[in-house]
Amino acid sequence: MSQACCLTIIICLFKFISTENVENEDGNFLIFNLNITSENSEQLSRFSNYTTIGFLNSSLPPLTEQNLQHLAQTVNFACRDGTLKVFEILPRFKELQFHSCQTTNITIKSDRSYELNALAIVDNNITELPENLGLLTKLERLYGAETLIEHVEMDELSKLVNLKQLYLIDSRIKTISSASQSLIVMPSLKDLKLSGNQLAMVSLAKWDAPLVEKISVRNNQLQIVMLMPFNFPKLKELDLSNNPLDCFWRRNLKQAMDERKVELWENTICSI
After folding, report:
1. Less Cβ around it within 10 Å: N or C end of the chain?
2. Positive or negative CA dihedral for 47, 51, 57, 61?
3. How many degrees, rounded to 5, is the angle at CA 56 between CA 53 and CA 61?
4. Which tens digit of pLDDT belongs to each residue from 58-106?
5. Is the dihedral of CA 26, 27, 28, 33 positive or negative?
6. pTM of the model
7. Measured distance CA(68)–CA(60) in Å, rounded
């Protein structure tokens, strides 16, 4: 899906390429149809001089710190339409994308500082966001789509003080909550998308996100969304389309959004 291209590593397959590797015009390296196992992981060292690298239709061994030594210069990495079940994020990485690679485990060690700016996890078998995600304090874009995630714990996400875009869409998310019940502070967040999930209730009332301009919770099962006007003073767009909204609540919300000049999308049929 087009929204998945949130990284500067953009992989497009407009024609079939049968060669094993291709260097594009920007000096980024795309590898097609590669098959490497743990026993011959040293073959990765052929690509060790490239800072941006993408594997397409390839089968890769678990990319732990040891195996990633063979990609010593790589800071931007992508896997698409292949197999990469385990990946360890190292401090040097800037942008990472895992798209349809059967990924189940993304490791973030707790004793390190990280440079990661963007992380995309799309159409994989991830059942929860990576442990220690809050250590990625330089992360600005987090994109999760078509995953098996059912619950999102906001205490960890609220540690991402530089996060500007949070997209958790088209998955199985049923609950979004804070175990500590404390205020969820997202000082840099501008764009929040939770569309295409299974949310029957969501509360944004305890969010402190002064820069948020866009919120989308379309295509869920929501009757109401708990939010307070002062939580999002810069809010410009609110998308509630394709939810079974409570008509009385909808009427009050529409009035409040009209007063704030917030563009509201919703398509609930009400007689009041």
Report:
1. C
2. positive
3. 80
4. 999 999 999 999 999 999 999 999 999 999 999 999 999 999 999 999 9
5. positive
6. 0.89
7. 11
